[in-house]
Batch of 2 targets.
Target 1
Amino acid sequence: MKKAFALLLAAVMVLCLFAGCTNDAKPADDAKGSVYWLNFKPELDETLQDLAKTYTDKTGVSVKVVTAASGTYSQTLTSEMDKSSAPTLFVIGNQAGVKQWKDYALDLKGTAIEKELNTDAYNLYDESGKLVSIGYCYECYGIIANPTLIEQAGHTMDEIKNFAGLKAVAEDIHARAAELGFDAFSSSDMDSSSSWRFTGHMANLEYFYEERDAGGWTECPATLNGKYMENFKNLYDLCINNSLTAPTDLATGGHDAENEFKTGKAAFFVNGSWEYAAVSEAVPNATMIPYYCGVEGEEKAGLNCGTENCWAVNAKASEADQKATIDFMVWLVTDPDASAKMVNQLGIMPYKSAVTSTNGFLNDAAKYTSNGCYVMDWATNYQPNVNEYRAALVSALNAYNADQSDANWEAVKTAFVEGWATQYNNANR
Amino acid sequence: MNPLKQIWKHPTRRWGLLFLGPVVAAFIIGFVWPFVQGIWLSLCKFRLISDAEFIGFGNFARALEDPSFRHAFWYTALFAGVSLVLINVLAFMVAYLLTQGIKGSNLFRTVFFMPNLIGGIVLGYIWSMIFDGVLSMYSTSILMETKYGFWGLIILMLWQQIGYMMIIYIAGLQAVPEDMLEAAKIDGANRRQTLFRVIIPNVMPSITICTFLSLTNGFKLFDQNMALTAGQPFVIQPDGSSIKTTEMLALNIFNTFYSSNTASPGVGQAKAVLFFILVAGLGLIQLRFTRKREVQQ
């Protein structure tokens, strides 16, 4: 009797060990389906948790939002997708992502959410024409400028209509930095928290003009011709050589470029529309200008608009879950309160019924467009094997920053142009 | 009698099997099963491990022809060799000093041991700040030169590992029989002779375990490598490929796994299996080699 009891007790104890593994996230009603969004933007998390709760209270559909820690999205996605309760809604933000995840993405063509879009510009397709993911917001980047400082230096924003104008203003400010009390460009650090502003964003000017020459890219080109490398060099050199920080100190990082701009130590800051909330309080008239780089006709250039925030619905989720997910997405972009909260965080959403933007930089982008300027789309999203490609570029730029010799620029060019072909082969062979 | 039957005959031994159960189960779930699955996946093309497709040895072929993997191997081997020697020599010296009855040796032991308690990523970032703080005076950075990256990582590892190995050596040194040391003294051995003829042969078991640990640690190093240099600087080859001059094996496997080719997780997995064979093989060889030198007390 005692023995049997001991055996029972031991068995219970062992079972208890496994009890922790049971799935406690089962929705109350299976027919309704449930939503699990693996979110990509940490800064959006709070809003999303709040919206998820509102939606559940309203409809009874359970919505779970999990946010991957900054910079770990692909790792988190890989492990989450393997679970029995995998995300129903996730992010495929660029062509590399399409390549990796297209088999797990539902074709969104003809779905309710697709019908709410007001543009096709931010959608991603795979090579068979399947609509893999659709943009839920877009952003723009360029050069953020402080008009007040520029006027203090005796210039006006109207002087900056092309590269020559930008160069004249920036070099003049840099030359008189001690007297003026501020410099032209804020620091362009090459550490991982800042290098993407150059290897991801500024590099786009080269890709964009190549893409335009080619009549638009629909998939990642196997090679680049590097025709606009000189233009990239123009702007990059201007940026590192007329800055608060000496180019030789950029590899280490640790300079707070945003703060330099906010506190009026620098007149220009290379970044994007997501900075608006951070800088507009200190610099209310901050404005964004295009990447002027010496390309013919660039007086007609606009800002770089695009996104890496694209929704994909899990093709392997149950039909009920897919439907619940799409319903939730539609709610996010049509409900006045929900879309207002989303727009407040994201800047702008390309949907018919979403509220309009309050982001000054995105409004700048719209102004350029309505003045007939061309939008520089995010050709950068085609970067093949993006992490490896950019890491090599950072290394080459570090060497160039330390010593701006022709040989070092050649290495940058090689990493930029031949590196593209190499990574394209690595990603596609 | 058959030993299995013998176990079965004694009730206490029979129950022993049950009590082993949870540990064995945990070992199977936490180690054996993932390990077997890892080997299986190295033969597959997969994005998620739940839908892997068997493709044979293709991943291994691609892993072996990857020049970055070969570079990472030689770099790691060099690193492991240098760190093995330096860590053990210095740890032994510190342990020897701290068993000579110096005042405050307990405090020193604690202080030397403490770096071990800090995680690798944190250490990497802290040391990158320290190195860059110094190197920025010369307008350069740890990311600019391969040799800075190499010696930087060596210094970091010494700082972290010496304390741990020191503890093992101290235990070994304290176990050297007093009477042997006294006999050596009476026989007129000088300090040097005592050290090399009496003490070192007697602490061979500690040396075995310490060299094993520092060798495998050197090969398996990952977080410190990623946080300190992440492979920088790269040498950009004329064809556009680049050699990450300070990338070690584990980081190379990680980078391979997460690159965008559809086959890359499989290749990364194949590299991981090769990596296991290498580290296990080296560890066993080293154990055999130092075991032979151990003496019976």
Target 2
Amino acid sequence: MSRALILGAALSSVVVLMALLSFVWTPYDHAALNIPEKLQPPNAQHWFGTDHFGRDMFSMIMVGARTSIAVALVAVGIGMALGAPLGLAAAARKGSWLDELIMRGNDLVFAFPSLVIAILITAVFGPGAVNAIIAIGIFNIPVFARITRGAALSLWEREFILAARVAGKGAARISAEHILPNVANLLIVQGTIQFSLGILAEAGLSYVGLGAQPPTPSWGRMLADAQTMVSFAPHLALIPGLAIIVTVLGLNLLGDGLRDWLDPRIRVARA
Amino acid sequence: MSLLEIHNLSLSIHGAPVLDHVSLSIDPGQIVAVTGESGSGKSMTALAVMQLLPAGTVATGSVRLDGHAVLNSPEDEMCRLRGAAVGMVFQEPMTALNPVKTIGDQVMETILIHKAMPRDAARTRAQEVLTRVGLPPDRFPLSRYPHELSGGQRQRVVIAMAIALRPRLLIADEPTTALDVTTQAQILDLLKGLVTEYGMGLLMITHDLAVVADMADRIVVMQKGRVVETGATDHLLRHMQHPYTRMLFQASGHRVALPAPPAPAPLLEVRNVVRDYRLPRTRLFEKPVHHRAVDHVSFTLNRSERLGLVGESGCGKSTLTRAILGLEEVQRGQILLDGQPVFTGHKPNLAVRRKMQVVFQDPFGSFNPRHRVARLITEPFHLLEAPPTGSERQHRIAEMLTAVGLSPDDAGKYIHEFSGGQRQRIAIARALMIRPELILFDEAVSALDVSVRAQILDLLAELCAAYDLTYLFISHDLSVVRTITDRVMVMQSGKIVEQGETERVFADPQHPYTQTLIQAVPKLPEIGQGAA
Amino acid sequence: MLRYALKRLISLALSLAVASVVIFAVIEVAPGDPASFMLGVNAQPETLAALRAELGLDVSRPQRYLNWVSGMLAGDFGTSYTYRTPVAQMVADRLWVSLPLALYALTLSTLIAFPVGIYAAARRGKPGDLAVMGATQLGIAVPNFWFAMMLVLIFAINLRWFNAGGFAGWDNGLWAGLHSLTLPAIALALPQAAILARVMRSALLDILGEDFMRTARAKGLSRRQALWRHGVRNALIPVLTIIGLQFSFLLAGSIIIEQVFYLPGLGRLVFQAISARDLIVVESVVMLLVFAVITVNFLVDLAYAAVDPRLRSRT
């Protein structure tokens, strides 16, 4: 196991554990206003300081991690659950109208960055965390469809797939039995990367008010609140920013580490 | 003084020994062939002369090129020697050229990088060498890109790049291994001609002993990083000292004895089969152009008969194979196995598929790396209505593994635990698993070293006796087909141009293409079997 | 080449057509009637009908779609529900901020990423490469709007080299405009440059393992010469794909960054429009963004063909 993998796994699990812990315990009530203690810099009582309403930043970061992880995880789940089967189907019927339809559909979705989808959805249905999930999730579908198709196509050329066809197995069975297990590593690695991108996207959407709405705590909105106060209370902006960076960095390192660890070619080269 | 003098060269890569006290020398105008199986270190010897070794290589000994010590000499000095004093030709012409640069630019680059002459003169020289290698500028302008040329033509460009500055030494690393046999003959002639004309030394790396015997003035036989035998070609062929050398030559010309086929009774009947592919249109509104991969092919394969199918790449033999296996539907004609069609109503016919299996070329790509051997070789059970289960299944697995010379214990292993030859045995076990009536061998021994190939051919002969096999053996390698089949068909541009009893066709080919093909194959010399 | 371009052009037109249908359909499902929204609940039926006619809302949906598309083709994007001014004019003004910002950032990102990526690939595994890889790993993790806030804190509030926000406008000269877009462009460009540099590096490393690189070395090219003469152009093929993708991220990112710097770009326009339920403005801005993304991908396709002769002759 590489150092990147260990560091990435450590950083990611710290964030996840913090989010889980926040369900049962936070140092303070993250929503409790305490105006007399507002805008305190980090100190012994409030490890990450307090915001302009005197709320404990550490508690807000813990609860905010929940929102970030939930939104990104569900969005990646949507992307993978819909994208991977589409990619498998397109590869199994390479060159057919189905393949063409799936790939052109992909191109079309790629023309709508997730922020643009979010703008459209928000304009119609109003802002909210669910709409952010849908926006990021839709954008993830072609990502997964494309890498699944690419990897599956090269597998379909391999002789062990021909052998399975000679053994009378149909496209669906071969996709499930031979193709999917051999692209699973790739999907896990890409899933980690998309997870980190999802966290960034969620933060961006919440920052401009298209994501999670009050009172749901969110790192992106904490940054939006901090903007006017950054000159005299920089910790309001620094701390949620660092939380995002640590999470995304951890997930990216985890993804890179997993790729090196799971890729049999690289393992053979090391042996 | 010799042109190239390698003395006691030892190499290790990250501590693993690769070469062990290798010595050889080449004189101007001399062709020295280094031969051996994979892992013998023959390519590393060539790369050591170029000093293009992989990172982490430690070398000791001495390599002197034209008086310069090249081993561990500074990189900028090596850059001056490479391309100017020594040129190199590689195995894979399809990837040896930069796809985004014209062939003219790439040939001129050799000249310009050494500042040998001004640009105009370099262009003229590039035209000259391309003409010399058989690509005259009136038919192959300098502005061509590599993808517009065939494999043989690309190899000519690589040779032109290597000889543009008339180097004293040319190194060719398996220069014809990726090429068809007729193209191979032309490239070998070209190399021979260049050696005589320019008085170059040629260091030729090849696994093909027939090529070695045909080309070389001297032969160097390597095994596991060591030179086991070396000598002038005539002398070495007559008086082989080392057992490995003898084994190598014997394995290359390995013959097996097949049981005599019974009276003809048709099993596979192919009648007037046509398979067209639509080519991508080159202009927007023109009619689609079709390429006829298989053109009215008819033949019959009898029960217990071993039939060969030979032809060069692109002749349509792979398409025909896939059509017989029911992997692709044909546009016209019929393929019948035991009287039943392979395709019924655009769907592969399962009843027919049950009677056929296949062994592919690539021992590394033929198996799902995530499954164990037991699961891999029982995959064809999927075709059966009532596949064996429990102890019967275990028994079949053990029987088949034993039949192909492996142990029943191997069933629990993963495929990466086996060598190339063992994998091919597992592939044969998989094909035999459901006792098919017909097996297709699709270049099944082409990727193997000669000694392993000989063992697999022996295994096939044994299985023919034990299981009464009927097979179609598809190969580009004529010498293998000659020994492992009763009858042979020769395919060219989608058509079967000749078919008949194997010995008769090889001894007395009728069709001009068959004659060219057999003519082009380098002949393995007759070696005194017992004489030593 | 011409055939290739023509083919891509047809696919561009098709994509735009489908995208316009999707956008129109999504906006159509929005609840509520813009006219009654504009006039309030107490509006007279006659005034409402008059306004609906004025806004072109009194015809069937397919007809409305056709009117919208043909209007756009003629440069008429309709009338804003809230400001009662032509949308085209509003969008055009804002576009002159957002588009230069995205292009400025794309230029910066490319200018930074190319040398850094080539440098790292040439020194694979050495300290220089490891430093670049570490820095880019961090760069990818930084949210651009947060980075923007930090830039404001350091360079505007503390050092006072730049204004903390606002746009000087192009009327005061190119330099003044560029100056006020510099911090936003850096904030957008650096995280993207980190991605691009990594792509450039890994593309080059892939190319370094190709047979033709060994051929080049056998001709007498040094490692560096082979990298520059044979590596970089081949590596451009995957890199171009990423540049195309990055443009859409930059354009979307610029919408967010505008919020940090209070820039009068498309971002502010669209967020105001969302809160005012001025759907025709949202519709037009989204269509414009999608148009920009599709067009850039078309240009990338053309660039492919310029780099790769195999594409030029094949189709």
